[in-house]
TrEMBL record:
Coiled coil: none annotated. Pfam families: DoxX. It is found in: Membrane. Its main location: membrane. The chain crosses the membrane at residues 90-115, 127-151. Keywords: Membrane, Transmembrane, Transmembrane helix. It is a multi-pass membrane protein. InterPro entries: DoxX. The keyword Transmembrane applies. This is DoxX family membrane protein.
Amino acid sequence: MMMKFWRENVYAAGFTLLLRLYLGWTWMTAGWHKLTAGFDATGFLKGAVGKPIVDKATNELVYPTFTAFLEHFALPNAKLFNIVIPLGELLIGLGLILGALTLTAAFFGMFMNFMFLFAGTVSTNPWLILLGGIVLAAGTNAGRFGFDFYLMPLLRKLLHRGGNDHHTPNVFKGTKPTAHA
């Protein structure tokens, strides 16, 4: 019942609009600041590799695979991350503010928040994950008051046009499937 409310109710769409605007502004300003003021992830990456999250009882790495990813891929490619992180933050923010590809923006925002958490930065990440989760739970209703209202039907039409319609089961054509005896 609660999921139906979040996914279909116009008031829930209005509430998620407010969440989107807040989240979007947070992401967009973070990305814009990094793009305009200069951003170098090298120090952050070195700190995350040099002082990873460890279990206090066993002194074992909590996220050994993530630490290895940072050490062997992210750190050697820090110049790439210096572009991808701020640009990603800016695009996530714009997507959420405009309500364009809202669920994609919310997903990648949460993804980046989790990456920052795995690296040991708590900051506002749990709060942003919680709010992003609400936006994701709202599904397409989260973009009802945004460009998704117009964009999603066009994308569905393009996706269905590319398929072979005479082999598509009735459930994908918007009709009820026939009952089998």
